[in-house]
Write a structure and sequence with these properties.
The structure holds two protein chains of two kinds.
Chain A lengths: L24 E5 L3 H13 L4 E5 L4 E3 L4 H5 L9 E3 L1 H5 L3 E3 L3 E5 L4 E4 L4 E3 L2 E4 L3 E3 L23 H12 L5 E6 L9 H16 L4 E6 L7 H11 L4 E4 L7 E5 L4 E4 L3 E3 L2 E4 L3 E3 L1 H5 L9 E2 L13 E3 L4 E2 L7 H19 L9 E10 L2 E12 L2 E4 L5 E2 L6 H23 L1
Parallel strand pairs in A: 1-2, 1-9, 2-5, 9-20, 11-12, 11-17, 12-13, 19-21
Antiparallel strand pairs in A: 3-4, 6-7, 7-8, 10-18, 14-15, 15-16, 22-23, 23-24, 23-25
Chain B lengths: L3 E4 L10 E7 L21 E8 L2 E7 L9 E6 L5 E9 L4 E8 L3
Antiparallel strand pairs in B: 1-2, 2-5, 3-4, 3-6, 6-7
The chains are: A alpha/beta, B mainly beta.
Amino acid sequence: MIRRRHVLAGGLAIPFVAKGQTKARVVVVGGGFGGATAARFLRQYDPTLDVTLLEPNHTFIACPFSNMVVAGERELAAQRFGYDAVRSDGINLVRAIAMSVDPAARTVSASNGASLSYDRLIVSPGIDIVWGGLPGYDEAAASKMPHAWKAGEQTLLLRQQLREMPDGGVVVMSVPPNPYRCPPGPYERASLIAWYLKTHKPKSKILVLDAKDVFSKQKLFQNAWKRLYPDTLEWVSLSDGGNVTRVDPATRTFETDFGSHPADVGIVVPPQRAGAIAATAGVADRSGWCPIDPVTFESRLVPGIHVIGDAAIAGAMPKSAFAANAQGKVCAAAVAALLRGEKPQEPRLINTCYSLAAPDYGFSVAGVYRPVNGVLTDIEGAGGTSPLDAPDSQRMQEAQYGDRWFATITAEVFG
Amino acid sequence: MVRVLVNVPKQIAANAPFDVKVLISHPMESGQRRDQLGQAIPRDIINHFICTLDGETVLDADFFPAIAANPFLSFSVVAEKSGTLALTFTDDHGVTQTELVAITVT
């Protein structure tokens, strides 16, 4: 019998040849921005592929702009997307959780009992929270001190707690060290909560306790805070003693090495790692994230399995919806090429990220990336951030661009 | 004057070790970096740190350029009775700063 799955030097697979099996099979785990993109673009790049998407949820709830839901400026319904369009592309949608992977037999076991065979597997599981990674913060604590770092129930819980907080209350949010999903996300959230407090509960404050000294779009955020929330938002950096070492959910208290901060509303952006199936499948390393080849996004640890989105160690690329979408396309093209026995093209990837400092005050960062010595690297001189001295009209325009970006990307992935 | 945060437990038991935590806001410029014109940025680090309890040395440390900016120190001390911790550090310019912290032993 001819083994089709040997890998040649240089990473080229022997072409997929039909032998009692008419179509090459690709299984995609996770129907978020990365996985749904990969599944649909696989069918575009090669309509003969047999593509299965494993996703337990009936609808996807998007994280970008969920901070506007927290601030009461957007409904969660605007974050929900269904899979009808994905299914009508001819993708087999299996509503189940991927439980385990057998890389030797090339099968995935699903929670509905199914065993799915693949020629190549794409894993896009997003993040899992490392419960207990911050002492005191376990699964039960999340119902007292929401993380809201996966959009849905948690987003609504945080919004409700903010609404119920009396005027004069203190909101405290802890921010972990890198890496985590959406690097500027905590600062956008702090801004929009400050905006909510300033508008509805002007005697209240938000305190941000950070395990870092520097963060994404820092100057843009700090300028906006000075202008918009000088009495509402306080940011404490690592070197000012901001590193939170423990939380007590019963009293909603944050402990640092140098003090104790009780909160009326406590938000914990928790330490994170790749979604559980990554570790189960053996594609996550000791960091909890997944090392990949930047041309194909194939795992460095297990051949035949590709990892995209937040779970991947993507060098200079941030963990964002835009990045996951870009990686989904690149990975789909590489997988389609490998299954045809062709050499995948070296990619260029783009990320753009909009943040809101207020509902009508937006700015952005853009980056372009290419593989250099096996790592996705920022192309110097490409991309950039919004100017620091832009007029309000430009901030308003960028807030609108952000809104259109969300409409565009969700239409491409789910529409 | 640089900003220093010090934390000791409010209640300390006699002859039982307790943690002293110190965070010093300092750039710890290593002397290895160059500026945009290619000129070496002069070394500027805290090179010596000493902690005493009522005059008795409990920690005496030399610092080197490999120590990161904003050094964070955590060490254990044993005290027999209430007293004063003196945390003294010296930088490359010879400037010395001392922080005094009273401890209460019960």
